[in-house]
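Appendix B. Extra example for self-study. Work through it before the problem class; the solution is given directly after the inputs so you can check yourself.
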Amino acid sequence: MPAPIDQIVAVRGISKSYGSTEALRGIDLDFPRGKLTSLLGPSGCGKTTLLKIIAGLIKADAGTIAIDGKVVSAPGPERAFVFQDFALMPWATALRNVAFGLELRGKAKAEREDIARHYIAEVGLAGFEGKYPHQLSGGMRQRVGLARALSVDADVLLLDEPFSAVDEQNRRKFQEDLIRLRSNQNKTFIFVTHSIEEAVYISDRIVLLSPRPGRVSQIIEPEIDRSGDPDLIHRDKHYLDTVQEIWQGLKQYAE
Amino acid sequence: MTLFGYRIPMMASLLVWCVLWEIVGRLDLVFLLPPLSEVLSAAVGLVQTPSWQSATVTTLRAFFTGMVLSIVIGVPLGILMGRVKIADDLLGMWVNIFSSAPLSALVPVLMILFGFGERTIVAAVFLFAIWIIVLDTRAGVRHISPSLIEMARSYGASRRALYLKIILWAALPEILAGIRLGLIRGVKGVVIGQLLVAIVGYGALFETFSRNFRMAEFWALTIILFAFALLIAELIERAEAKVEYYAGARQ
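Solution. C-alpha cells for the complete assembly:
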C-alpha cells in the first residue's frame, strides 16, 4: 500500500486501558518523514501514553506501531526520547549524560565524547560539558536531554512536553532553537504538548486528541512560513487564526 | 553552645565531664570508677600488651568479615526487594521484624549453630548489620525516578547496564546511609557477640578485667571501643558527604 507522502511512523488501531479507564481507543495515525507533528490535547487525552507506546516504553493493549514499515514493540535505535523531567543522571556530567545513549551502544569513549561535544555545541551549551545537572538551569538541563537524543542519530525524535518544566523566557528561546534544529537536522519530530500556541508555533502538523477515551479528533496543518524572523510568527495572521480555531475546538473540554 | 555570650567549642563540654570524672575518681567514692588519668595510663599500657593486640586483630577480623558479608548480601537483597514486588512481599515482613527485634537474644542460638568461636562473632555482626542495609537499599531503589529507568530502557540499556549504570548509582546515597547505620550496628554485634561468647577477642579481655576488678583497664578498653565506633561512623559520613554532593540535587 504505497502512501503518496513518505510516512516514517505508522500507528494502527492502538488502544490502551488502565484498569477501567480507557486511555486510548483505536488510534490510526501516520507521521510524515522530516516533519514536526504535535500531539495536542487537554490532560487525560492520552497523548503522553501514545508517545510512550510509539517509543516502546508502554505496551499497547491492541494495535501496532511500525517504523519504516517494520513493526516494533520495544525501544529501538531509530527512536530517541526527550523526557518532560529531563531524566538526566545527577551523578554524571553533561558530557557523560549526552554520550550515555552511545555508551549503552558500546561506542568507544573518545569517539562518543567527540560526538557528544558536537551536539552540546549544537544545542548551545558549549563550555558546559563538565557541569553536573544540578549546576544547570531547567532550560539548560533540557538542552542536555535534547543533545542526548540527537547524539544517537535516531530518525525519529519523541519529545514529551519537553518545555513544560522550563520557565517562560527559556521556553520561547528553546522553541526558536527547535525550529532551527528541525530545519538543519532532517529528522522526524513527534512532540507532545498541552500548549496550543506552542503547537501552532513549531508544528508542521497538529494532531488534536479528545479525552476519555483518547481519540483523534482533528488534524491541522498550519501553513506558516518559519524561514524568517521567529518573532514575526507570533504576529502572523495565519498563526493567530489557527490558535483561535484550535481553542474553539478544545474549549468544550476545559473545566 | 554559648555561655554568657561566648561561643564554647563542642570539645569544651567533653572537657568538663573529664574533669568531673577525675574528681569523682580521686574522691574514691565508688571503687568501680578509678580517676580518668589512671584509666588513660592504663590504656597506654594496654595497647602495648600482646593480649590486647591479638584480641584487636581477632575483633577487627570478625567485624570486617561480618560487615563485608552483610554488605555483599544486603545490598543485592535490598535492590531485589526494591525492584521485584513478589520478593518484597515475601521478605519484607522478616526484614522489618529483624531490623527492630532485640537481636542480642538470638546470639546464644548462634553459639549453638556456630560454636564458641570466631564464626559466632561473624554471624552476630552479620545479623546485627544486614537488615538496615537491606531496608535502606530498598528505600533508595524505590525512590529512583521512573523516568530515569525509562530513559535507560529507551536508549537500549541491557538489564545488566540498567542495574550497574543506573539503579546502583541512583540509590547510592541511601545505600551508603544504610551501610553507615549497619556499621554502627555491626560494632554492637561484635561487642555483644564477644561478651556472650566470652573467650574470644575483646570479650575475653572484658571478662578477665571485670572478674579481677581491674577497672582502669576495663574502662580503657571501653573507651577504645567507643572511639573505634565513632571513627568508623565518621569515615563513612565523609564518604556520604561526597555523594550528597549530587544526592541533594536529585530531581
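Self-check: The first strand of chain A starts at residue 7 and ends at 18. If your reasoning did not lead you there, revisit section 3.
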